[in-house]
Structures are given as structure tokens and as C-alpha cells.
Amino acid sequence: MNKKSLVIVLVVLIVGFGAYYIKQNQAPVVFDPLNATYILDDQPVTLTNGKSEVSAAPGSATEITTTIFGEPVTGDLNSDGKPDAAIILVDNPGGTGTFYFVAAAINTHKGAQGTNAVLLGDRIAPQNIQIKNGQIIANYTDRGPDDPMSVPPSIGVSKYLVFDGTGLKSSPPISGAGERCGGNMKTTPICITDYHCTPNPNSDLPFGDVGGTCVLDVNQN
């Protein structure tokens, strides 16, 4: 082997070893919803250990505080087989209001990618949040439309949200295999992808009124 070839081989070996060393010693990407950026009212809010504190205006003593209520819940929101997360955010802008939002963190190769935050309400009472059938369900109590803020929240509400690839949006309730669907309820459940709603063979009630159950489409068998 001549000198030029030897130099080339050494350079290749050094570069290869360097790349291998860097790859082996890189810190693994961690999916952490408590350290991610979410969009509240079109403004980015970056959480550090589940909390953000920023001045309401330059030189202002008033701080806008945003924190996570409770703990994140996990589940697959974009059908990629990886666990994503849903959270409730509490935003205190410095006045009398305390605003509650739902947001999601999508599990990407770069870590937790926060979504837009969807408002639940001002001074509501959050109950719980879950991910089921690829959908976020937030349960809370609120006031009636004519109730003053002095009235404690007492009306049960459920908010249904899905991730559409770019952000969270409202959705009807989604049912899985064998679960109830259809009917004339105010929030009529629909079926997950590849399933359709069919009448319950054991029911004598009208399908259009009471709905049925989700079954697999024939062409998916």
C-alpha cells in the first residue's frame, strides 16, 4: 500500500470512529411533556419542569404563570405506536381569571412536541383527563351560561379532542370495537377507523334513536 492510500485509509478510520463515538455518547432524546413548548392564545409558552413564569410586559411586576394541573396521561394520539401525552394547563395572567386549557405533547424523534392549547374555561373545576381510542377526553365541572362567577362550578362537562396532524381540534366521542355508537344523543359517538356502527341484534328499539355498536368493516377482515 502506498503512502497516499494509507493516508486515505487512516482518514476514513478516524472519521468513522469519530462518528461512532459521537453517536454512542450523545444523550438520548427524552420525551418529557413537562419540558415542552405549547401554544396558548397564539403565543408560545415554554414549560420548564412543568412551569412557566414570564412578565406580563417589559418592566412589569405582574407575572403570567402557567403550570400543569395534575399529571400528564399517555396514549397514542397519531397512530404511530408511540406514547404521546395529554395535559391540563392552568394559566394565571395576573388578573382575577384562572384559565384552564387542554394540550398534547406528541412523541417525535426530537422529543416532546407541544400542540395548541384548547380552552376549557375560566375558574372551572377539572376532574380528570384520559386518552382513549386515540382521543383526549377532559372531564370537568362548569357553571351555567347565566351563572355569575361567584357560583361554584357544578355542571358536568366532557371535552373531546383529537390530533389531526397539525394540532388539537374538537371531535365527537369516538367508540372502539364493540362499544356503543350512533343514536340521537347530543354527543353521538362515532366509530374508530375501519369500524362502522351497526344495530344491536338483541335490541327492539329503533337504531336511529338508540344507536348500536362498532363492528369491523367487512373488507378489513
Fold and architecture overview:
This protein has 221 residues and is mainly beta. The chain folds into 2 domains: 37-171, no CATH class; 180-220, no CATH class. It has 2 helices and 17 strands. It has helices spanning 3-25, 207-210; strands at residues 37-40, 43-46, 51-55, 63-75, 84-92, 99-108, 111-114, 118-122, 125-132, 135-142, 155-163, 168-170, 174-175, 180-181, 190-191, 195-199, 212-216. Strands 3, 4, 5, 6, 7 and 8 form a 6-stranded antiparallel β-sheet that branches. A 4-stranded antiparallel β-sheet has the order 9-10-11-12, with no helix packed on it. It has a 3-stranded antiparallel β-sheet with strand order 14-17-16, with no helix packed on it. It is flat and about 70 Å long.
